[in-house]
Design a protein that fits this description.
The longest helix has 16 residues, at about 30-45. The protein has helices at about 30-45, 55-65, 85-95, 110-120, 125-135, 165-170; strands spanning about 1-10, 50-55, 75-80, 105-110, 120-125, 140-145, 160-165. The protein is built from six helices and seven strands, in the order βαβαβαβαβαββα. It has a seven-stranded mixed sheet.
């Protein structure tokens, strides 16, 4: 059994139009959302064996705020290929993961993360699937399980959606 966590970066700032997309920071709501998601991960004792993170500023800031809430530091790899990656690129990267990893989190961007989730999911929590089908907003986390022993065996339709949590909902709770 393998678990895949797909976390879209928290809300970023468009305040400085001169900044390159890669260098956009989180805005105030994004910083709050990332902290709330870290609290959520802590409450559920979610601690993936590996994090693959886009090296963009907004994904790194999301990771930093999430990690502050966790009892242990997560092993992180910043990979340029995750930045604005398409679904098939992300799936190819997942296929190359070490099979010793039971769980992995990808912190990245849309539309790639959303398309990857939609590609992989076949079944699971109906309410969560409906919510994800409407939108994969900033700061959202999809938790997928696949009944496989090797990451390279993950195929389209090969996972179930266990949960879909939107950081904005956590802030309102």
């Amino acid at each position: 059994m393998k678990t895949l966590y797909l976390l879209r970066h928290a809300k970023s700032s468009w305040k400085d139009a001169a900044l390159d997309d890669f260098d956009r920071p989180l805005n105030k709501r994004g910083r709050q959302s990332a902290k709330a998601m870290g609290d959520h991960l802590q409450r559920l004792s979610i601690s993936p064996g590996q994090v693959l993170c886009s090296p963009s500023r907004r994904t790194r800031e999301t990771l930093e705020r999430v990690q502050r809430r966790l009892p242990v530091a997560l092993p992180v790899r910043f990979e340029q290929a995750v930045y604005l990656a398409e679904a098939h690129t992300l799936l190819g990267r997942i296929h190359r993961l070490s099979d010793s990893l039971a769980s992995v989190m990808i912190i990245g961007h849309n539309p790639g993360l959303e398309m990857l989730a939609r590609m992989l999911i076949h079944g699971g929590d109906e309410a969560a699937r409906g919510k994800l089908a409407r939108k994969f907003p900033t700061g959202a986390l999809a938790t997928l399980h696949a009944d496989i022993d090797a990451w390279h065996d993950l195929t389209p339709g090969g996972a179930v959606l266990d949960a879909f949590v939107v950081a904005g909902d956590l802030l309102e709770a």
